[in-house]
Write a structure and sequence with these properties.
Helices cover about 35% and strands about 20% of the residues. By secondary structure, it is of the alpha/beta class. It folds into 2 domains: about 35-110 and about 225-260, D-Maltodextrin-Binding Protein, domain 2 (3-Layer(aba) Sandwich), CATH 3.40.190; about 115-220, Periplasmic binding protein-like II (D-Maltodextrin-Binding Protein, domain 2, 3-Layer(aba) Sandwich), CATH 3.40.190.10. The chain has a 6-stranded mixed sheet. A 5-stranded mixed sheet has the order 7-6-8-5-9, sandwiched between helices. α3 packs parallel to α4 (about 90-95).
Length: about 270
């Protein structure tokens, strides 16, 4: 039967109404990625872990890296983050005091060490012991460190040099960087003959060599806490936090030189 003009118009109207009434399903919008504010020294390990989590779950996350102090201040100012992964306890304490995190989610997850580094081909030798004359090793040049007043690696480095009696000799020869990876880059490029960074940073850059590792008793313990932010509304944030605490994530951190702290309760 050949359709009449009226029946054809009626059919077109029905289709138009169907589209206009929402009968045709709309594409499902992908879930927003979990946003992690993380210390710069975590970049290599955390990037790998996020990729592995995504492959295992089909979910997505992205990390924003900077010095822990900068990230804590950004969270205080209302920056949209779901997780905060700090390079020391003090800046997590700051975020907690400002109401920026959910304290019940806080976990001490990793430990690290600080090392003295030099460009790869350097012949410099230094023994990190009391009475250290680091100024002699610098030969009038500067030592690269994170900001000694705010960047965790810089604070640890200053504490270690003070304990070893070397700080007064170099305090006017410090090239202070905005984060530990920036300090690493100064040495990697040969712009500074020595630098103090985390052991994990040295592992990440083949253009530097470790001259010596600072004694663990020369500075406060280097602990990396992580927590979910108070304002996080992403339903996948808790799942990523659980994954980072799980045995599945452990190899990614250990491969970069971190030590994983047990099941990660507050210490």
């Amino acid at each position: 039967m050949i359709p009449t003009k009226r029946s054809w118009l009626s059919g077109c109207l029905a289709i138009a109404l169907a589209f206009g009434s929402g009968f045709v399903p709309h594409p499902v919008r992908a879930a927003e990625p979990v946003v992690v504010f993380a210390a710069a020294s975590l970049k290599n390990a955390l990037d790998e872990t996020i990729v592995a989590w995504g492959k295992a779950t089909g979910k997505t996350a992205k990390a924003s890296y900077a010095a822990s102090n900068a990230l804590a201040k950004q969270i205080e100012a209302g920056a949209p983050a779901d997780l905060f992964f700090s390079a020391d306890l003090a800046w997590m304490d700051y975020a907690d005091a400002k109401g920026g995190i959910r304290p019940e989610t806080r976990t001490n997850l990793l430990r690290n060490a600080i090392v003295l580094i030099a460009p790869k081909d350097s012949k410099t030798t230094v023994e990190l012991k009391p009475g250290l004359d680091l100024a002699a090793a610098l030969k009038g040049e500067r030592i690269a460190m994170g900001s000694i007043d705010s960047v965790p690696a810089g604070k640890y480095g200053k504490a270690a040099l003070e304990k070893l009696g070397a700080w007064d000799g170099v305090k006017d020869r410090v090239a202070q960087a905005e984060n530990v990876r920036a300090a690493l880059l100064l040495v990697s490029r040969g712009e500074a003959p020595l630098g103090i960074v985390y052991a994990t940073d040295a592992v990440s850059d083949p253009s530097v060599t470790v001259v010596a590792t600072f004694p663990t008793d020369s500075h406060p313990p280097i602990v990396y806490p992580i927590a979910q932010t108070k304002d996080s509304a992403n339903p996948d944030a808790a799942a990523l936090l659980a994954y980072l605490r799980s045995p599945a994530a452990r190899p990614f951190f250990e491969r970069q030189g971190f030590s994983v702290i047990g099941s990660g309760k507050r210490s």
